[in-house]
Amino acid sequence: MTVTPIKQKYDIKDISLASMGQQRIDWAAREMPVLRQITERFAQEKPFAGLRLIACCHVTTETANLAIALKAGGADAILIASNPLSTQDDVAACLVANYGIPVFAIKGEDNDTYHRHVQIALDHKPNIIIDDGCDVVATLVKERKHQLSDIIGTTEETTTGIVRLQAMLKDGVLSFPAINVNDAETKHFFDNRYGTGQSTLDGIIRATNVLLAGKTVVVAGYGWCGKGVAMRARGLGSNVIVTEINPVRAIEAAMDGFRVMPMSEAASQGDVFVTVTGNMHVIRAEHFEMMKDGAMVCNSGHFDIEIDLKSLGAKATEVKDVRNFTQQYSLPNGKSIVVLGEGRLVNLAAAEGHPSAVMDMSFANQALGCEYLVKNKGQLAPGIYSIPTELDQDIAALKLKAMGISIDSLTAEQINYINSWTSGT
């Protein structure tokens, strides 16, 4: 391909990594046929022409293909990382060098750098924001009120981000429409369950090379992500315990064949702990004290506060790196606790995140969600909106077609039956 140098500023690790990044972006694209078809249409129709867009996402090969789609659609786009440990530096280099997309993301960047990148992105004066956890939108609302009138809308990728948007809406500070990409059926049924399920265990195995068969894996939270992790851990031969606060989900976990108990009971039984709740301090000081020597803890929820690492660090007599993305905390009682990925998303800190085939649908939702905002500019009141059902169905149909799978369609008689109240049983 032709390499086009860019004039915009960027902040990445090493632009010489671009060729390696191109190979991996192309590899991911092979598994993203839905997004590829959307990219081809965007290139012809240019739905984002004249619009400024910022995306705060995990800078991975899959996100690169989304960024390429948005630029093909005419967007003046900037990409920043949504997590300090999830950036793939070769991908960032490729987007800058080969596609002219300014990227502000470095794997391992500190919190100050992350927040500086958020400010740089907002300096771009966006019309559309793609957010992953709502950090950019929250910063905009708190610190950049003078820019609110520029915003057409935002799309949100995660459960955590949607919770924050709901709180903003309740407080009356959300002044533009937000598309809830997370709850699209073609997102959370697949991304959260199959993506998180596989990639979380991939991260654990890459970080530790531990044999999961025969181990007791404690999964905190039985939402779609927790279901995926529990299912895949059992598939590898683990004995799985689920902890929950929601009685309905707890019943579901029990009826799916998992042991269910409070974390206070599970803490002494687990060999590996995975938090997927979106809440804070799910594993706390009292739990660490009960854990086995060498117990491993990691997080696959959005933020790094699910595990109370501050209290663990305060108790520790020594903290040392024992493998990449693996730290051992030695405690006064003689035991040690192993923390993976610094408590951040282990599937992205220690591995490569969700498989491309799953992100194909998630990012198709993002791309079409942005287009929906543009098409309905000025017609949507401030609030949180679901992806329209017809778009969700279109994405599923495109995915099935790419997989070579055909399904039935209703006959005229069946359509009449399900839309009638006069027909009996």
TrEMBL record:
GO terms for cellular component: cytosol. Coiled coil: none annotated. It is an enzyme of class 3 (hydrolase). Pathway: Amino-acid biosynthesis; L-homocysteine biosynthesis; L-homocysteine from S-adenosyl-L-homocysteine: step 1/1. CDD domains: SAHH. It catalyses: S-adenosyl-L-homocysteine + H2O = L-homocysteine + adenosine. May play a key role in the regulation of the intracellular concentration of adenosylhomocysteine. This is Adenosylhomocysteinase. It comes from Aphanothece hegewaldii CCALA 016. The lineage of its organism: Bacteria, Bacillati, Cyanobacteriota, Cyanophyceae, Oscillatoriophycideae.
